Amino acid sequence: MIWYILASFLPAIMVIMFSMMIKNKYTGLALAALVIGVSVYKGFFHSEMIVFLDTLSLMLGYFAVDQLKLDQTIHY
């Protein structure tokens, strides 16, 4: 059960964090997708549903960054 919860939220959080650090939503999405892709390739997943939830969460994270303009905010 914990794997499904993590798969639902962690990729979106990674997209948001990477996009805010790098100031580019496309690079943030690519880095988060790369991390998820490597974990799938190495076999750190338990079912196809987790891969589906990861993909859905990546998309939701991208849309959150896009709508809230988090990649363009200036933090001092």
Describe it for me?
By secondary structure, the protein is mainly alpha-helical. Helices cover about 80% and strands about 0% of the residues. The chain has helices at about 1-20, 25-40, 50-70. The radius of gyration is 13 Å and the shape is elongated. The termini are far apart. The mean pLDDT is about 90.
Could you list some keywords that capture this structure?
3 helices; 79% helix; elongated
List the helices and strands and how they pair.
Blueprint: H1 2-22, H2 25-42, H3 48-68
Helix pairs in contact: 1-2, 1-3, 2-3
Whole-angstrom Rg: 13 Å
* Helix content percent band: over 70%
Distance between the termini: 39 Å
Q: What string, H for helix and E for strand, traces the elements in order?
A: HHH
In percent, how much strand structure appears in the residues?
under 5%
Instruction: List unreliable stretches of 5+ residues.
Output: none
Annotation field: number of helices:
3
In short, what is this structure?
The chain is mainly alpha-helical and 76 residues long.
